[in-house]
Structure formats: C-alpha cells, structure tokens
Amino acid sequence: MPRLQDQLDEITAHTRTLVQPERLAVNERAVEDLFATGIEQNILPVGAKIPEFSLPDSTGRTVKSSDLLALGPVVLSFFRGRWCPYCVTELEEWRDLYPLVRERGALFVGISPQTVRQSDFTVEQHSIPFPILHDSGCEVAGQFGLAYTIPPFHQQHYRSVLVNIPFVNGDQSWRLLLPATYVISPDGTVLFAEAHADFRVRPEPEDVLAALPTVER
C-alpha cells in the first residue's frame, strides 16, 4: 500500500494538470498566509490535557469525549469536510486501518465543521466505520488551536469553484480548521499532535499508530 503522503501528492500533481495557474496561485497564497500567522506553533501540544467536548455524530447522537476516553486511547482526526479530496483520502486510509486501531484497544474519531447531514453522507458514501462528529463553527477545533477564518480573497475562490462552505458547514462564519491528528491517552493527555497549514500534508498513519499506548487487556 502506498504511503498516505504519496497518495496525497498524486492528487496535487493531478490538480496541477487540470487547474488554471491563476486558481492554483490563490490556494498557494492562502497556504502561505496561513503558515505566516504561526498557527502551526500554537496548536494544543503533546503533554497538554484536551478540553472536554460534547458533539453530535452523523446520526445526531451526542458523543462526549469523556465517554470515548473511558473506553481507551483515542485518535482524533480533524478534517475540513467531504468536499476536500485530501480529507476523503485520509479518512479512507484510516477506514482501512481501523481494525489495527481497534486491535490496539483504541478508538478513531473524525471531527469536522461540516453539518450532521454532510457527515452522514460521508459515512454512507465512504463506508466509514468510526464516528464523525459535527463541530459547529469550529468551536472545539478552536480550543485545540486549529480554527481560523477564511480570508475574503479565498472565500471568493471557493465560490468560484463551487465549494459552498457556508452551506456545507451550516453557518455563515467561514470558519475552517487545520487538518490535524491527535492521539489522546485515556486520562486526556495529548501523546501525539500534528497539524499543517498546508492542507495537502498529513501525518503518516504508521507514526500515529506508533504513538498509541499499550493497553493491558
């Protein structure tokens, strides 16, 4: 199986053959501007305790972080939405690896600002076996240091390529999050944290799995 980043790089290469240079330049500027804010340096770090949260899953059922952690370690994957091919590729990779996560006594959970309905579509269309939670307005993502507001020039770009983020997210805030992966111990301590201003970069699952604690059965 190819590395996750190799799969994502293929998407990038394919996109560059199809999309006009001026449209590509808008995304590049957005990534550079976001990186320049220093947001990557301000994410919730290894060793910190996560904020408690309570979010609806794709069926509308409320899921509490405390209930998840009571069952063992948790891998949290913050992703932008089903409209993002990089996010979908990452989710499908974790779908295929989910049996390994469970063998380690851990859970995997996706978190996105997309609506419950959009999450339900994601679960159905991609056969996702783990919960996908709706983080309205990126409120929880903000507590992890991952949230930001899309600048007007990039909002215009998304409109021009028919990515209707206010519709997908169910609000007019234009809030989005850095794709990020966390490993959380049962006591709520961050064991692994990685987020990138460049949405085309994600951690390798093998590195994430290596951070999971050994759980005695």
In summary, what is this structure?
With about 220 residues, this protein is α/β, with parallel strands linked by helices.
Describe the structure in your own words.
- The chain has 217 residues and is an alpha/beta fold.
- It has one domain (4-210): 3-Layer(aba) Sandwich (Glutaredoxin).
- The protein contains nine helices and nine strands.
- The strands form three sheets. A five-stranded mixed beta sheet has the order 5-4-3-8-9.
- The protein is globular.
- The two termini are 30 Å apart.
- The mean pLDDT is 95.
Key structural traits:
five-stranded mixed sheet, Glutaredoxin, 217 residues, 42% helix, alpha/beta, two-stranded antiparallel sheet, globular
Strand content: 15-25%
Output the CATH homologous superfamily.
Glutaredoxin
The helix tally amounts to 9
Helix content: 40-55%
Secondary structural class: alpha/beta
Shape: globular
Overall structural domain count: 1
Radius of gyration: 17 Å
Task: Explain the layout of strands and helices.
Layout lengths: L3 H15 L2 H16 L17 E3 L5 E3 H5 L4 E5 L6 H19 L3 E6 L3 H11 L5 E3 L4 H5 L3 E3 L2 H9 L4 H5 L5 E3 L2 E5 L5 E6 L9 H6 L7
Parallel strand pairs: 3-4, 4-5
Antiparallel strand pairs: 1-2, 3-8, 6-7, 8-9
